[in-house]
Write a structure and sequence with these properties.
Length: 331
């Protein structure tokens, strides 16, 4: 099944299929090992770089990476590369920091090797967990759209996730049928982390109809709505921007007022990120909503709004000129 899913993905993305070199993130777990196996055995004419990260968080972490290197030796078209997350580790949010570190390490390598697409083994159950995590954190529509099958990473490379409609059960079955060896990360059973706790609640959620498939479908529908709103916000941005340079831009408030609230919020966010591009973070949405409310309260009451800061930028509203002014601050 997995090979058919990947072939179907490539049929829809011919430009990716035509490339001669790929990279695959391989932790040694069943998800990434199944993905690597499917790519290596189906596309033997490609050079496929197997990228494995030793996070150096457990005494035996290097042994697991040794195993990955040994397993992929059987494939003549594989090129193995090991990375180590060096330096001091944070005391809090360790899993988030580890994820950011491995993505940065792999992205830098891909750029150095002229690799445009890095394949990741995220599957349907991961998509469902991501949806629930973001829901618990109060994410808006954009966050609940969860993971995309193709997404840009820091404008350097693209992440490719062809298995988002494949269940963990299907992946384990594929590994068994094809005699694929893999290791299990003990952190997946550690109740100190959020994802393992969500997995423990899976049985209860499924009894209420919140299956991984249903959550994944919901995330896909929200992503579709997100993309439509993004397209509209790009149109609105083009209509309302008056003047723009590297340090300042002006928005026509009267023109912007004609658009729905969600579009206005997206225009403000885009204006902010035009002056202060973000990399590994985005402005908190509740703070953006507070700013939006202050601007339109001033607009409705026909009064100026004093400068307010957000995301290393300063926002003000001139009621006489009906202009929203955004100035770039210092980081």
């Amino acid at each position: 099944m997995i090979k058919q899913v990947i072939q179907s993905f490539f049929d829809k993305n011919k430009s990716i299929q035509d490339e001669e070199i790929y990279a695959v993130a391989v932790s040694g777990g069943p998800d990434s090992m199944a993905l690597a196996h499917a790519l290596l055995t189906t596309y033997s004419d490609k050079d496929i770089h197997i990228l494995s990260i030793d996070h150096d968080l457990r005494p035996d972490s290097s042994v697991e990476i040794d195993a990955v290197e040994e397993w992929v030796k059987a494939y003549p078209n594989s090129i193995f590369k090991r990375f180590i997350w060096e330096g001091a580790k944070p005391e809090t949010a360790i899993m988030e920091a580890a994820r950011a570190a491995r993505y940065d390490l792999m992205a830098d390598y891909c750029v150095s090797q002229n690799i445009q697409h890095l394949f990741l083994g995220h599957h349907q159950d991961d998509q469902a967990e991501t949806f629930l995590i973001r829901l618990a954190k109060g994410s808006g529509l954009d966050g609940l759209g969860a993971m995309a099958s193709i997404s840009s990473y820091q404008n350097q490379i693209c992440f490719v996730r062809p298995l988002l409609d494949v269940t963990k059960e299907d992946i384990l079955r594929y590994c068994k049928i094809n005699d694929i060896q893999f290791s299990e990360d003990p952190s997946n059973e550690n109740g100190e982390y959020l994802r393992p706790r969500l997995r423990e609640a899976k049985t209860i959620l499924e009894k209420e109809g919140l299956t991984s498939k249903r959550l994944s479908i919901t995330a896909r529908r929200l992503a579709r709505a997100r993309d439509a709103l993004q397209n509209l916000s790009h149109e609105a941005y083009g209509e309302v921007i008056e003047v723009s340079d590297d340090d300042m831009l002006f928005l026509d408030a009267q023109c912007l007022a004609k658009w729905p609230e969600d579009i206005r919020l997206r225009v403000l966010k885009r204006a902010l990120e035009t002056l202060q591009p973000v990399e590994n973070y985005s402005v908190r949405y509740d703070r953006l909503e507070d700013l939006h409310e202050a601007i339109w309260m001033s607009y409705d009451q026909d009064e100026n709004m004093k400068r307010r800061s957000l995301g290393h930028c300063f926002f003000s509203y001139d009621n006489v000129k009906k202009i929203i002014k955004i100035e770039k601050g210092k980081k």
